[in-house]
Amino acid sequence: MKPTVKNMNVKGKRIIVRVDFNVPMKEDGSIRDNNRIVAALPTIKELVNKGARVILMSHLGKIDFKKAPEDIEKAKKKNNMAPVAKELSFLLGQDVVFVNVTRGEELENAVNNLKDGQVLLMQNTRYEKGESKNDPELASYWAKLGDGFVMDAFGSAHRAHCSTVGIPSILEKEGKQVACGYLVEKEVNALYRCVEIKDDERPYVAILGGSKVSDKIQVIETLLKKTDKIVIGGAMAYTFLKALGHNIGNSLCEDDQLDYAKKCYESGKIVLPIDSVCANSFDNPTSIVTSEAEDIPTGYMGLDIGPKSIELFSKVIASAKTIFWNGPVGVFENEKFASGTKAICQAIVDNKNAFSVVGGGDSAAAAKQFGYSKEFSHVSTGGGASLEMIQFDGHIPGIDVIPDVK
Ligand code: AMP
Fold it and tell me: Is 144 helix (H, G, I), strand (E, B) or coil?
């Protein structure tokens, strides 16, 4: 079990909190969706109420240091944290000290001037080239700013960066408190249930979709060991169907994964679509037909699972006690090919006996778009992080760095 912010003794201490304030921004520099800031509030409020001096760090967007200096400056301007500080201050109902730099006297003075219960937000951690390389000098400099560390950025916990791994490993070695925030605690508890399956939580059914098999190879291998059934939809399914000798028309396929797909299928755990909604074009579908069986008509591509597959997949889902879902089973962004993914959401929420986890990214977006988000047991905030949690048996760097409570 990981220690959490709840049990920390933080009064008067400078606590560095790694939050995920990587919020979508509008062209005019305002915030498009403040969900991620809202999600961090319970941890921040807990620390404020306990009289900690709170130092918040987060990345925002990407800055490519291989580009020309003027492009780097442009990226920095675009990914400036100032609007986030303003929004946070509004949501918290108290002032937030915003420090426009990531190192130097201005930052150190602002930290030293913090009073108990005050909150500071540092500029974007990615303004520093060393952040994503977990540069030891940068990690040690930032670690000196704090007396303790809280990890509350689940979406970044699969990355070994200075702000996710460098700082806590230094502070932990110095005997300082490091712990998970409330958001990370919730994520870890939910995903551990999909990693360490107890017998009375079976059958365990995973649903995988999306476009690329190669992206999900490792996770399929781990899931084959853990699950009772893996339902595969989306473009991924056509690589499997081709490997089994079916005609897949113009459907997306990764030919270099055919042998691997065949090997996985031999496990006997994989359930594939038995019909598909097909179109003559991805961008401009003027002819849409439903295939009778696995084979896709020549000149067409499979863009969603068909009605017979919906029935088959829903039956498997209805039998489950634990469900992990990652990846839409069709091109859900287009209404014409959204029925399959909608039906998967419906089947999962209809199964009231199951513990259900949606693994972030596109599946979380689909669940939100169709209005199901609140009905799952857990919707992860980290697409990459949740997949890697499963893939690596519950071990990702930003969580492993926080030692279990003895
Ligand atoms: P991924 O990032 O691998 O999870 O893929 C998500 C994307 O897969 C979504 O944008 C879907 O539109 C797309 N997708 C799902 N099913 C298909 C399909 N049958 N053909 C092409 N793209 C698909």
Answer: coil
pLDDT at 190 over 80: yes
Contact between 157 and 188 under an 8 Å Cβ cutoff? The reply is no
**pLDDT for 360 beyond 80:** no
pLDDT value of position 100: 97
d(CA 345, CA 39): 23
Residue indicated by tokens 């403040």: 34
From atom 6 of ligand 1, which residue's Cα is the shortest distance away?
210
Predicted structure pTM score:
0.90
Cα(226) to centroid(ligand 1), Å: 24
Q: What is the DSSP string of 181-249?
A: -HHHHHHHHHHHHHHS--GGG--EEEEE-SS-SGGGHHHHHHHHHH-SEEEE-TTHHHHHHHHTT---T
Q: Which residue, judged by its Cα, is nearest atom 20 of ligand 1?
A: 235
Residues 6 or more apart whose Cβ sits within 8 Å of residue 14: 52, 53, 55, 111, 114, 145, 146, 147, 148
Q: What is the pLDDT of residue 27?
A: 82
> 302-351: per-residue pLDDT in tens?
999 999 999 999 999 999 999 999 999 999 999 999 999 999 999 999 99
What amino acid is encoded at 89 in this protein?
S
Positions marked catalytic: 36, 212, 361, 384
pLDDT of residue 129: 96
- Residue nearest ligand 1's atom 2 by CA: 210
Q: 298: exposed, middle or buried (C-beta count within 10 Å: 0-12, 13-18, 19+)?
A: exposed
